[in-house]
Structure to design on (183 residues):
C-alpha cells in the first residue's frame, strides 16, 4: 500500500499533511499571518465542497493528491506558488443524488465561500481600518479567481462545463473583488 493511500485513510490526518505542505511552501514569503490566512481560506474552500456533497446525499472527503502534494512542496523554493496538496473527492452511493443542481452546488461551494469571505473581510477592513483584513480579502479573492480558471481539475472547468452563465457571473464577481482588494 502506498504512503499516500495510507495517509488518506484518516481524513483529519490528510488535512493536517495538506496544511503542513502549504505552510512549508509559503512561510518564507508570506510569514505566519499570511500562512494562517491562506490555510483558513484553503480549508474553508475545501470543507465547503465537502459539506455541499454531504448535503446533497453524497460522501465528500479530503484526499491528498501525490502529484499536487509534491508540486506544493517544490513551490516552496520557487517564486510562483502552486498550492494543491489535495482535493475533496465526492462519491455518491446513489448516483441519482448527483443531479445537475447538486453538481453545480458542490463545484461552486468553495468559490462561494471564498467570495463571501473576501467581500465580508473587505467591508470590515474598510469600516474597522484593519489592514490584515485587506490581506485576508485579497487571499480569498485570489483563490476564487484562480479556481475559476476553466482548465483541468480546477473548479472553474467543472462549473464552465455545467453552466457558462453561472461561471461568467462568478468569474466577474471574483475579478471585481480582486481589483477592489488591490486598490
Amino acid at each position: 500500500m502506498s504512503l499516500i493511500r495510507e495517509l488518506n485513510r484518516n481524513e483529519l490526518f490528510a488535512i493536517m499533511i495538506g496544511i503542513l505542505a502549504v505552510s512549508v511552501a509559503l512561510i518564507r514569503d508570506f510569514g505566519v499571518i499570511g500562512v494562517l490566512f491562506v490555510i483558513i481560506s484553503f480549508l474553508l474552500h475545501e470543507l465547503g465542497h465537502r459539506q455541499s456533497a454531504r448535503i446533497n446525499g453524497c460522501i465528500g472527503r479530503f484526499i491528498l493528491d501525490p502529484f499536487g502534494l509534491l508540486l506544493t512542496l517544490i513551490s516552496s523554493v520557487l517564486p510562483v506558488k502552486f498550492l494543491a496538496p489535495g482535493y475533496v473527492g465526492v462519491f455518491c452511493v446513489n448516483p441519482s443524488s448527483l443531479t445537475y443542481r447538486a453538481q453545480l452546488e458542490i463545484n461552486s461551494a468553495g468559490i462561494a465561500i471564498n467570495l463571501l469571505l473576501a467581500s465580508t473581510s473587505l467591508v470590515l477592513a474598510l469600516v474597522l481600518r484593519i489592514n490584515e483584513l485587506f490581506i485576508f480579502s485579497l487571499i480569498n479573492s485570489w483563490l476564487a479567481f484562480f479556481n475559476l480558471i476553466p482548465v483541468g481539475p480546477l473548479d472553474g472547468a467543472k462549473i464552465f462545463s455545467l453552466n457558462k452563465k453561472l461561471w461568467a457571473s462568478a468569474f466577474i464577481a471574483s475579478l471585481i473583488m480582486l481589483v477592489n482588494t488591490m486598490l
